[in-house]
Amino acid sequence: MSDSMTTDVIVCTTCRPAGASRELPADGELLFEAVQTAQLDDDAGAWAQVRVRGVACLSSCGRACSVAFQAPGKYTFVFGDLKPDEETARHVLECGAMHARASDGMLQRNERPARLKSGIVARLPPWGVNPTG
To answer: Which InterPro entries match (predicted)?
Structure first.
């Protein structure tokens, strides 16, 4: 699979809501594990074009849990305020597959899975592209 057909789904593994106990696993780590498990359970290969990675911080601490979708030559999206559960994990993978299929990486709100219809932290244009509008 070429990189132009692959989207990286980056999950912040250190995300935790304000005031959450440091004695418990971070919500971000729980979401990362749920996304990895969901992808392993993908017998149909619907999410084969998605590469899941965990990172120690996406600097969206006020919007925990957060994930980013990025690929060369495409818009990058960062979402926050996600729940660290199985349904969110499936929606993250579905959105990653949408990003991989879109030639520019745009994720139209009305087409995104329910858990990702809101919560956008940032939308960044592809590097070196001067977007209009």
So the answer is: DUF1636 (IPR012863)
